Amino acid sequence: MENNQLKLENQICFKIYSAEREITKLYRNLLEELDVTYPQYLVLLVLWEEKSVTVKELGQKLFLDSGTLSPMLKRMEGNNLIDRRRSLEDERTVIISLTKKGEDLKNKAQCIPSKLLENLSLDMKELKSLNQTLSSILNRIQQKI
Amino acid sequence: MENNQLKLENQICFKIYSAEREITKLYRNLLEELDVTYPQYLVLLVLWEEKSVTVKELGQKLFLDSGTLSPMLKRMEGNNLIDRRRSLEDERTVIISLTKKGEDLKNKAQCIPSKLLENLSLDMKELKSLNQTLSSILNRIQQKI
DNA sequence: TAAAATTTAATTGTGCACAATTTATTTTAT
DNA sequence: ATAAAATAAATTGTGCACAATTAAATTTTA
């Protein structure tokens, strides 16, 4: 009896795993000029929208915990991209905000989304269906956890 | 002027990045019983198909380099899942094969693919389109590199 | 055939990612 | 008011992931 279920080529999740890493490599090239990693770029995306957020809020938006965020934010602070300060109302929470340098990086980043989509060269139909499918996967999984 | 391109919610790649990690978490639960990580499970999938492969071949199949594979394979050897030996014909190459324990793990793994798909609860149509889109993304990216 | 180039793994160093624990603070329940 | 519970972030420890370098073996080429 064949064992197709356990064949690598039939693993849909292996494709997601591989695609994620290949796409991150594409980002790496584009982000080199900004001198940030892809996860750091995600933090910047949030801050370009929100001005300031707590570590907890960042974690909720990016699905990352403090074990990942704390050292990463420390590195970003070291690179002068963000400021970190304790909230005055609640000394437990840490508020993250952009420095001038982090703020200014937004201009350089404007071209990144379109350049990346160009590299992927998906047509509109594929893009839409991929978007929908991933969203529904994420919704389903997150409900279970 | 709005800046929709840089909004987090519009980042298709963020969804792939998030989905990859959420799916890996689902695997983590299923793989706990086998006492292997997801990347180690991928190595096992290859070996259950092939009996023995070189580190280079593994890297080509999984899109991983020796910097990732060498220490991981050493851990798997330490857990008695695989054997590593230098090829006699070409002393540069290292041949990876399953131990009895690694071989036997295949039985326990039989249920994993179906359990995982159940967790994702995608319908056939979604699964097919996701599969196609990811394959074409992977093809396109890999041609560029 | 000996030197140069190539190939294969391993190593080194950096940066996530996450489970589990710890520390400090705030909230709640007595 | 205070002890217990809950919350937020940091820390610790393990395991990828990858760029860059190194070391050893093989192949190519002059």
Task: Present the secondary structure layout.
2 copies of one chain form a homodimer.
Chain A: H1 12-31, H2 38-50, E1 52-54, H3 55-62, H4 66-78, E2 82-86, E3 94-98, H5 100-109, H6 112-120, H7 124-144
Antiparallel strand pairs in A: 1-3, 2-3
Helix pairs in contact in A: 1-6
Chain A binds a DNA duplex (30 and 30 nucleotides) through helix 1, helix 2 and helix 4.
| N-to-C CA distance of chain A | 35 Å
Q: Which percent bin holds the helix content of chain A?
A: 55-70%
Q: Major sheet of chain A: order of its strands? A: 1-3-2
Give the overall shape of chain A: globular
Number of discrete domains of chain A? 2
Oligomer: homodimer
| Gyration radius over CA of chain A | 18 Å
Largest interface: A-B, 60 and 60 residues
Uncertain spans of chain A: none
> N-to-C SSE series of chain A?
HHEHHEEHHH
Please describe the biggest sheet of chain A, giving its number of strands, its sense, and whether it closes into a barrel: 3 strands, antiparallel
Question: Total strand count of chain A, please?
Answer: 3
Treating each run of at least 4 consecutive H or I residues as one helix, how many helices of chain A? Answer: 7
Protein structure class of chain A: mainly alpha
- The overall pLDDT of chain A, averaged over residues, is 93
- Portion of residues in beta strands of chain A equals 5-15%
